[in-house]
Amino acid sequence: MSAELEHIWSRMQAELALAVDDSAYRIWLAPLRPRELDQRRLLLEAPSGACAWIRDRFGRILASCAAEVIGAGVSVELVDRRRGEHDGGEVSSPPSPGARERKQPPGRERESRPGPLANPKLTFEQFVIGDSNRLAHAAALTVAEMPAHAYNPLFICGPPGVGKTHLLSAIAKLLLSYNPTLVVRCTTGEAFTNEFIESLSGRRTEEFKSRFRDVDVLLLDDVQFLERKAKTEEELFHTFNALHDAGRQIVLSSDRPPHDLQALEDRLRERFAAGLVADIGPPNLATRLTILRKRAQHDGVQLQDEHALHAIAERIDTNVRALEGALIRVVAFSSLTGRPLTAELAVEVLDKLYPRPAGQAHGGVGSIGAIQDAVGRHFGISAHELLSSSRSARVAWPRQLAMYLARELTGESLPAIGRHFGGRDHTTVMYACRRAAGRIDEDAAVREAVEKLRAMLAPHQP
Fold this sequence. Notes:
Elements: H1 3-19, H2 22-29, E1 33-38, E2 41-46, H3 51-69, E3 75-80, E4 86-91, H4 134-145, E5 154-157, H5 164-178, E6 184-188, H6 189-201, H7 205-213, E7 217-221, H8 230-245, E8 249-254, H9 266-272, E9 276-279, H10 285-299, H11 307-315, H12 320-337, H13 343-353, H14 368-379, H15 383-387, H16 393-409, H17 414-420, H18 426-442, H19 444-457
Helix pairs in contact: 1-2, 1-3, 4-5, 6-7, 10-11, 10-12, 11-13, 11-14, 12-13, 14-16, 16-18, 17-18, 18-19
């Protein structure tokens, strides 16, 4: 780098540091490096994969600061540092006002110990969005893109296995992919407690404080573990204050919302609830099916019958972890026995681990999943099509008939039936039932087909 370019870039850094808040500068703009200044064009290197993001969010600021330092009419172009390629765009705009590069001191690691960052599947790309987790996903993505700018702290709560750890890991990975120099501490309430106790016994409390306070982002999973641990709670209280006062991002997760952590100190619960509290509930049927398809695709599972996924999704409705575990078990059983992976095989395997409630044996009354399977097979459509938004006659009539049979043969309410059909509301189910009843009355062939389906689904009915 020439002395002139170095001088120009130093002045631009000072302008940029004034133009944006500290966290945005530290995470997105400090990592930029000048490559060359050719006539009226300044070429900057950006971390791999971050060119488009920086250009979209900070393009006007970069151009304004360049105009302030170099002169009007200058353009700023970004190039990917790793590939050495232009991102295909440049930034230029009228002036507006605008530090040294923040380097990572020796010994500052990204994680306190092996954790969710080691799992390559826990990314935003692999996270399946549904009605039960949409807010938490959007908030986590916002935090990853603009830490300490929107939601600080971010508190994600929900029962075990619904994706809280996945989102914390995704935040960390996205941040580090854009700026590897960031110090991101990703740990659990249990690990935090154990490390604090070890530091007390070894008289290394200052080292412990440095590890958790001298960071850019702290992600603390399962904070409910800290309940009834007075000394650890006090340490977390001071750590929280130090990070928050310094403008650093804090993300926490728990199996309960802050107001339900009654065994925690009031001052901690108040701080946890001071930002955004985003809850995650159990996934609905449509989301469970999408999760299973994504996992099957990721693992290269060859499906002879997609209804097998539907059988698993209908049976396992508590959490994602149990859902994926059930898929692994069914796939393993198919592989070891040489039997095709069908809905019948899935039901056979799951009956041993997750027995159906009374009255919901496979093919019996009370199982909306069994009704969907039977109707899908009869009309030759997949479970995905049955739950999709398609309004084609080929799909709409079987869907209406399946809703009609679910209403007739199960004790489920209209809203509950709608949830099993991709989250539709009760008025849609009512309309489907009226349409199906009218068609059954008017068409003998339809009536005969429905009787066959009834006989298959409720063989013991009089």
